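Hi everyone, sorry if this is the wrong subforum. Our group has a chain we'd like a structural model of before ordering constructs, and none of us has done structure prediction before. Sequence below.
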Amino acid sequence: MEKDKFHRAFGVYGLYFKDGKLLVINKNGGPYINRFDLPGGSLEESESLTNAMKREFLEETGFEIEVVRNLGVTDFMLPWDWEQYSHVHHIAVYYLVDRIGGQIVNPKQFDGQDSLGAFWVSESEVTLNNASPLVLKAFEWLKNGDLGLDVECYEHWEVKK
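Answer:
Right subforum, don't worry. Here is the predicted structure as tokens:
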């Protein structure tokens, strides 16, 4: 990977479980396109982590949330041909969240919106072929309460366009 050029992406992501199922979005862009992904994303100018979490969750799902707890940070590296980059190094801050209002809606589409809608999935429904590493890590956290310390590398990642 010495000659590879990495784009560093940083974002906040919410885990909202109900009856053993995780709320996910249908991703419409980036290296996780056409896969289940966690609601969340990048911060806007001068936006705090938790405010970004609340905004992203509302924009992508229709749910108003409260941030219950910071679960930790993890990162992923995978191939992604985008602009001048060959790979992405995705740094993700995970939060446990709870719904305080709203309902699942079809998200408004605007430049930068990468959610086609939200729905519930169980662990048995997710695989490396249909889910982002973030979703797989969320179910791992649910089982053992730990995100781990080491980067997860997906050398043979397929972007599903």
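For your construct planning: The mean pLDDT is 94. The helical segments are 49-61, 133-144.
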